[in-house]
Design goal:
The chain is built from 20 helices and 30 strands. By secondary structure, it is an alpha+beta fold. The chain has a domain of about 250 residues: Beta-galactosidase, Chain A, domain 5. It has a nine-stranded antiparallel beta sheet. Strands 7-6-12-17-16 form a five-stranded antiparallel beta sheet, with no helix packed on it. A four-stranded antiparallel beta sheet has the order 2-3-4-5, with helices on one face.
């Protein structure tokens, strides 16, 4: 399936079709386009394209979806009246590949029609990195046998629904403003976002276009008569604007299409390649000695990059990026702790945009805190466009019609500290003082206000506690004193004090402004310090390890390894309720704490004790878990185990080892893979003198090379054998 440079499919497999649609997504930080076939008509749902920010709720459902955009990929090819499909005629050759270095999806098919004509078809598509509003594809038809009459039809399919059957759009308006193009416009039913799409077909034989504009599927048709050896190229150029971009998205889309037609496909593609090449150079990774893992690293960074908004700081990356409908497009902690860090170190402007999304939603976080009786900013577990909590209350019915109550929206509260952690990492690595002064400090300080009001005083024990939460380990609901939650809350309060001291010293006017708006005074800071000093961090003195939560060691132990190999989570094996009574961990919890805070938790021996305790209990029921474990294992010198975990993380989408790649790319796994490489195997860390490495490469890794940016300067690290080279530019 893979080579060093590309993800490749050499045979079609219907059982894996939806997985490959996910893998072969192209995007540009504005739109994501799944790898559906151009000729494809039958499909569970036409949801090939998603655009950032277009959330909409169905009546009676408080949890919005990222609404699918019109299906623009469709391209019908007929040869002497016989329509090209992979299940008609004969497929004599087939190959499809995604090249992360060019952000291009290519497919070649050698096909014999039922009439005996033999043609070679080469499809190419991209979402322009140079102009985010331009989407394009081209098919090159080469006749190898016969002299067929060719008809090409393509347009905009507006009948798009989610797999649930929901339609998020009002009736579509369609039309044509030129002889070779069509357009469509509508608005979401509840949120009122407008979307306009324009499409044109352009050929190299100057074929006369025929337009069918007034239908739910407006089309342009081109025809040509070809001879053996003759070649015929048709480009489909598409532009898209929303009401988030313009007050008149239809006019903007049409004007952009006019510009695109004048430029032509080749010029558009060259501009895309030039722009993407500059972006890709900052994020590429070379790993000699393991072809699959090198591909996986490139594939992962590609998917993070094509999902990260380039020009918009009012949207963020959902857990499944823009590559699928999973989790309704909602934003989780996945973004800040897994996808933001590699962007912070390679393309900090993109990271800044994602952090600004949280700043713009402070009002929603403050409202959630008030609604729950707290102060400050309490960020939602799942976020969409408004910043309100959008976690569904109930799961979808299972095969028996049963639904499970979802408590994460109420109880999984560590996301507030996760956001603060991402902000502090961004500040330390970039030195972006203006961001920290104007935006970051307010988020960190108001999040600290939340924790200071969230803690509960236990008079009997003489300590503060945080009860009734869910930690990263979501197999156990409504627990008390989760180690990750409590320790990150303390870290948050400590960090907020440092931020306040910096702000007061460097930017006193801003400090005075925030003191007034956030009620920051000596009494508040004294309370913060008391909480820091007396917040309970559960620790087992006998075992000398952190306790994941109160009474965790009283749960029934389970031999997790006895259930290998498997794809299903152990929660699905035992059941939702029984699992809560078992000593099984869904994903990195205490181990994630080690990844984030490291030696703040103790020396290497102490960290190793915690690893030895918790690693054997982990089910890796979440895609973000193997990468975090690989990161920590490498840091602890467990290189062989780290490499195995790294391959597990690398295989989540490429080999679909979770069985759900069809729903979209696992964005956290992608970002976690880069962090495991950089912070784990390479041992990247900050010192007083800047970035440094402490590498622990597995046997067989001959050379590792990657680049980062530190406070505006580019560092390129090369680890080869026992040598480490650092080049600065």
């Amino acid at each position: 399936m893979s080579s060093r440079s590309v993800v490749r499919e050499i045979l079609t497999c219907p059982e894996q079709a939806l997985q490959y649609e996910t893998l072969f997504t192209v995007g540009n930080g504005y739109a994501g386009v799944r790898g559906m076939f151009e000729e494809q008509e039958s499909h569970p749902y036409f949801d090939s394209t998603r655009i950032h920010g277009l959330f909409n709720s169905i009546e009676g459902d408080l949890s919005p979806d990222l609404a699918p955009a019109p299906h623009w990929l469709g391209l019908s090819l007929e040869f002497d009246g016989h329509r090209f499909t992979l299940d008609s005629g004969r497929v004599l050759g087939y190959e499809r590949w995604l090249d992360p270095a060019t952000a291009t999806l290519t497919r070649r098919v050698l096909w014999e029609s039922p009439a005996g004509d033999v043609v070679r078809l080469e499809f190419e598509r991209f979402a322009s990195s140079a102009d985010q509003h331009v989407l394009a594809l081209r098919v090159t038809v080469t006749v190898l046998k016969g002299a067929p009459d060719v008809r090409v039809r393509g347009g905009i399919e507006t009948r798009v629904t989610l797999s649930s059957g929901f339609n998020h759009w009002k009736p579509w308006e369609t039309g044509s403003l030129a002889p070779d193009n069509v357009w469509a416009y509508s608005e979401t039913t509840q949120s009122g976002y407008g979307l306009a799409m324009s499409a044109a077909l352009v050929s190299d034989l100057n074929a006369t276009p025929i337009v069918e504009a007034n239908s739910p599927h407006p089309l342009v048709e081109l025809s040509a008569s070809l001879e053996t050896g003759q070649q015929f190229r048709v480009a489909k150029l598409v532009t898209v604007y929303t009401s988030r971009d313009s007050a008149d998205p239809l006019a903007e889309a049409q004007n952009a299409l006019d510009r695109a037609r004048r430029a032509g496909y080749d010029a558009l593609y060259e501009a895309h390649l030039a722009h993407w090449s500059r972006r890709w150079e900052e994020s590429d990774v070379v790993l000699e000695g393991d072809e699959f893992l090198e591909l996986a690293l490139r594939f992962s960074m590609y998917h993070v990059l094509i999902a990260a908004p380039q020009h918009d700081d009012d949207v963020s990356i959902g857990a499944k990026t823009l590559s699928g409908a999973g989790y309704r497009g909602h934003v989780f902690w996945d973004t800040e702790l897994f996808m933001v860090p590699p962007l912070t170190l390679t393309q900090p402007q993109l990271s800044r945009n994602l952090l600004m999304y949280r700043y713009h939603r402070l009002a929603g976080a403050r409202a959630k805190a008030r609604e729950n009786g707290y102060e400050g900013a309490m960020f939602p577990w799942e976020s969409a466009d408004t910043g309100s909590e959008v976690t569904p209350k109930w799961s979808n019915p299972d095969a028996e019609g049963k639904r499970i109550r979802i408590w994460t929206g109420e109880l999984e509260q560590h996301v507030t500290s996760d956001i603060a952690y991402a902000i502090m990492q961004y500040w330390r690595w970039t030195g972006d003082e203006a961001f920290m002064r104007d935006y970051g400090a307010e988020i960190v300080l108001d999040g600290a206000r939340f924790w200071a009001s969230r803690v509960e005083w236990n008079d009997k024990a003489g300590r503060y506690e945080i009860n009734h939460v869910i930690g990263p380990d979501e197999y156990h609901e409504d627990v008390n004193n989760n180690a990750f939650t409590n320790r990150m809350a303390r870290w948050h309060l400590e960090t907020a004090q440092q931020v306040w001291a910096w702000l007061r010293d460097r930017h006193p006017a801003k400090a005075q402004e925030l003191a007034a708006s956030l009620s920051l005074d000596d009494k508040a800071f004294d309370h913060w310090q008391t909480v820091i000093d007396r917040l309970y961090i559960p620790f087992d003195e006998e075992r000398q390890v952190y306790i994941q939560f109160d009474n965790f060691f009283d749960l029934t132990p389970v031999d997790v390894l006895a259930f290998e190999p498997r794809v299903a989570s152990l929660q699905s094996v035992f059941g939702h309720e029984p699992t809560q009574k078992l000593r099984i961990i869904k994903q990195a919890d205490v181990v994630m704490l080690i990844a984030l805070l490291g030696e703040q938790l103790g020396d290497k021996a102490a960290l190793r004790r915690n690893w030895d305790m918790y690693y054997p209990m982990c089910d890796h029921g979440s895609s973000l878990s193997p990468g975090a474990h690989a990161w920590v294992a490498a840091r602890l010198g467990l290189v062989d185990l780290a490499r195995d975990l790294f391959e597990h993380a690398a295989s989540i989408d490429l080999r679909d080892n979770k069985g759900n790649a069809r729903d979209g790319i696992h964005g956290a796994a992608c970002g976690g893979l880069w962090q495991a490489m950089a912070f784990g195997f390479a041992g990247l860390h900050l010192t007083e003198n800047g970035p440094a490495l402490d590498p622990h490469l597995p046997p067989g890794w001959k050379r590792l090379r990657f680049s980062i940016r530190y406070q505006g300067e580019r560092y390129t690290f090369t680890i080869e054998g026992g040598d480490v080279r650092i080049d600065r530019a």
